[in-house]
Automatic annotation (TrEMBL), chain A:
InterPro entries: Abitram, GCV_H/Fam206, Single_hybrid_motif
Compartments in which it is found: Cell projection, Dendrite; Cell projection, Growth cone; Cell projection, Lamellipodium; Nucleus speckle
Family: Belongs to the ABITRAM family.
GO biological processes: dendrite morphogenesis; regulation of actin filament polymerization; regulation of filopodium assembly
Name of the gene this protein is made from: ABITRAM
A GO cellular-component term linked to this record: filopodium tip
Gene Ontology terms for molecular function: actin filament binding; actin monomer binding
Gene3D superfamilies: 2.40.50.100
Stored PANTHER family: PROTEIN ABITRAM
Keywords: Cell projection, Nucleus
Subunit structure: Interacts with F-actin. Interacts with G-actin.
Protein known as: Protein Abitram
Automatic annotation (TrEMBL), chain B:
Protein name listed in UniProt: tRNA pseudouridine(55) synthase
Keywords from the named record: Isomerase, tRNA processing
Domain Pus10 N-terminal eukaryotes: 30-204
GO molecular-function term, one example from the UniProt record: tRNA pseudouridine(55) synthase activity
Enzyme Commission (EC) number: 5.4.99.25
Gene name in the database record: PUS10
Record domain Pus10-like C-terminal: where: 210-441
InterPro entries per UniProt: PsdUridine_synth_cat_dom_sf, Pus10-like, Pus10-like_C, Pus10_N_euk
Species of provenance: Tursiops truncatus (Atlantic bottle-nosed dolphin)
Enzyme class: isomerase
Length: 187, 450
């Protein structure tokens, strides 16, 4: 499997599948229609060591063809910029604490649309991806790796429970399928 | 019945050896040494201690004797000194503290030759083998307590101590206290105890010995240290156990501490000359080995497993360990990696990597260790690379890097958090399929001809 799946369809292998970096170390969890906004799906990559990487799911509007990102901002309120997050020591003191609905960043598109990306998991914010600030297209080209949004470290005690409110890969695929058939049914 | 005045005033008489005859003639315990110079200097007692030493199963060619007296003994010694000073003063003679022989010194003068003779080895202050004898005298434990009222800051409770009245604390207070205050609180001469001291502990211990060597790792399924989560062992055995278990047995040690000049992941092999390691064997019962015996031990370890092999196994000193740790931070390492690319590549697509020298890379703490390491950016140098084309989607990369470089992350980029990386240099998506350590460039421990 050479490229990262843009949509959650099983990749048809042209050659024997080599599990990707994400496949080897991470479990994919999903949250659909975040904050009630249709199709604003997030994908949380959970490492075997409990660290979570927040990314956009393939079905997110920003990743659809034709969307052009004008800019990305980590200033989520007048007093809070995710860029100011400072973490020190082995126990990551000083990190901004995030709840599931905490905003991570705002994405501004050329068509005037504005999207807020949320954390989806509770935990300490380790870092936000500064590479997408300088080159927003990376977010669309490689949403599951170089285009990640943020890295979050859940509390040790909560590392298993954080996935309780999230969808598995299979459940997410079902949601997407239902959406497609719902739109085709109404059209 | 009380013997003589308890208060240091009035009529007292001191007999030369410091003991005061008791009206009860069957109790004749010295009121200064509490019986230590009376009952515990005899060959019989020494013999009993030596029997215990011999039964403990330690191998030793010399020993250091560590004697511990009850703290209240210092108080009595102090009282006796004040008295003798006073008497000599009456004869216009002065007496300094170092004009007197400390009780412990006298005890050692008497007993060292006796121990030496009984065990057949010399007493040596630098010996790693320690025999410790601890005396106690429960009857007079409260003798020290008056010192706390006068010098309270000497007796601050500390975490690990059961009683604040340690020997050190009592000595400190005795040095501080004024003579008049002491004599008001403590009878000079001290009153006679009913019983002699008792021995509460006779322990033997041997200082740690160190064994060093280099190990090769041929398994891609072996952790450095035991991998246990929630009490469950996730992977069979470990590098340290495969090497140290044999040493633990042969040296008859209580436990071990394994350290090495860096380490590799579970799925990484260590080839070439191997990685330097050192094992501290704690409280070993057997310590003398010829180089032939060590060679045989090495052979035994090598015969017992094909997952690891050791070489240059030798005894070293504690100081020598520093060389190895120095290696971890300062010395270069060489690796070989089998790399997969998503795009089809030709030989010419990888040749440019051979020409890159001393490439500086910035590595954020890899995600796979971020849960237990601080978040930071580390600059590292890839000194040189050499490529070997395998096929359209694979090539082997040999690299020589600075110590502390994360190779896997240099290949796949770790979500772009290691920059530059093979993906960015070649403009492909690359991943690492296999990694081997080819050499750890530390020239310690000294190579032995096998």
């Amino acid at each position: 499997m050479a490229t990262e799946p843009e949509t959650p369809v099983a990749a048809s292998a042209k050659e024997p599948a080599v599990p990707s970096l994400v496949d080897r170390y991470f479990t994919r969890w999903y949250k659909a229609d975040v904050k009630g906004k249709p199709c604003e799906d997030h994908c949380i990559l959970q490492h075997s060591n409990r660290i979570c990487v927040i990314t956009l799911a393939g079905s997110h509007p920003v990743l659809q063809s034709g969307k052009v990102i004008k800019s990305i901002s980590y200033q989520i309120s007048t007093n809070c910029s995710r860029l100011q997050n400072k973490v020190s020591g082995k126990f990551k003191r000083g990190a901004q604490f995030l709840t599931e609905l905490a905003p991570l960043c705002k994405i501004y598109c050329s068509d005037g649309e504005e999207y807020t990306i949320s954390s989806c998991v509770r935990g300490r914010l380790m870092e936000v991806n500064e590479n997408i600030l300088h080159k927003p297209s990376i977010l669309q080209e490689k949403p599951s790796t170089e285009g990640y949004i943020a890295v979050v470290l859940p509390k040790f005690e909560e590392s298993k429970s954080i996935t309780e409110g999230l969808l598995t890969q299979k459940q997410y695929e079902e949601v997407v399928v239902k959406r497609i058939s719902a739109t085709t049914a109404t059209s | 019945m009380d013997n003589l005045s308890q208060n240091g005033e009035g009529k007292i008489s001191i007999i030369e050896d410091g003991s005061i005859a008791s009206k009860n003639s069957n109790l004749n315990v010295c009121n200064v040494c509490l019986g230590i110079l009376q009952d515990f200097c005899e060959k019989e007692f020494i013999k009993k201690v030596c029997q215990k030493v011999e039964a403990s199963g330690f191998e030793f060619t010399n020993l250091v004797l560590s004697i511990s007296f009850p703290p209240q003994l210092s108080v009595r010694e102090h009282a006796a000194w004040l008295l003798v000073k006073q008497e000599m003063g009456k004869q216009s003679l002065s007496l300094e503290r170092n004009d007197t022989v400390q009780l412990k010194e006298a005890y050692k003068w008497i007993t060292h030759p006796l121990f030496s003779e009984e065990l057949g080895v010399p007493i040596d202050g630098k010996s790693l083998f320690e025999v410790s004898v601890v005396f106690a005298h429960p009857e007079t434990v409260e003798d020290c307590h008056f010192l706390r009222a006068i010098c309270p800051d000497c007796f601050k409770p500390a975490k690990n101590k059961q009683s604040v009245f340690t020997r050190m604390a009592v000595m400190k207070a005795l040095n501080k206290i004024k003579e008049e205050d002491f004599r008001k609180q403590f009878p000079c001469p001290p009153n006679s105890p009913k019983a002699v001291c008792s021995v509460v502990e006779i322990e033997c211990a041997h200082g740690a010995v160190f064994v060093a060597g280099r190990y090769n790792k041929y398994s891609r399924n072996l952790p450095q240290t035991p991998w246990i989560i929630d009490g469950e062992r996730k992977l069979d055995s470990s590098v340290e156990e495969l090497i140290s278990d044999h040493l633990l047995t042969v040296f008859k040690a209580e436990s071990f501490n394994f350290s090495s000049s860096g380490r590799e992941d579970v799925d990484v092999r260590t080839l070439g000359n191997g990685r330097p390691f050192a094992i501290e064997l704690v409280n070993p019962h057997r310590v003398h080995f010829t180089s032939q015996e060590i060679k045989e031990l090495q052979q035994k370890i090598n015969n017992s497993s094909n997952k690891i092999q050791v070489r240059d196994l030798q005894l070293v000193t504690r100081e020598a360990i520093g060389h190895m740790k120095e290696g971890e931070e300062e010395k270069t390492k060489t690796y070989s990696a089998l790399i997969w690319t998503n795009k089809a590549i030709q030989r010419k697509d990888i040749e440019f990597l051979d020409d890159i020298k001393d490439l500086k890379i910035d590595q954020k703490t890899p995600l796979r260790v971020l849960h237990r390491r601080p978040l930071a950016v580390r600059t590292r140098i890839i000194h040189s690379m050499e490529t070997h084309y395998v096929d359209e989607h694979h090539f082997r990369l040999y690299l020589k890097t600075q110590a502390g470089t994360y190779i896997k992350e240099f290949v796949h980029g770790d979500f772009g958090r290691t920059k530059p990386n093979i993906c960015s240099l070649m403009d492909v998506t690359a991943d690492i399929l296999e990694l081997d350590v080819e050499s750890v460039d530390v020239d310690w421990p000294p190579a032995l001809d096998d």
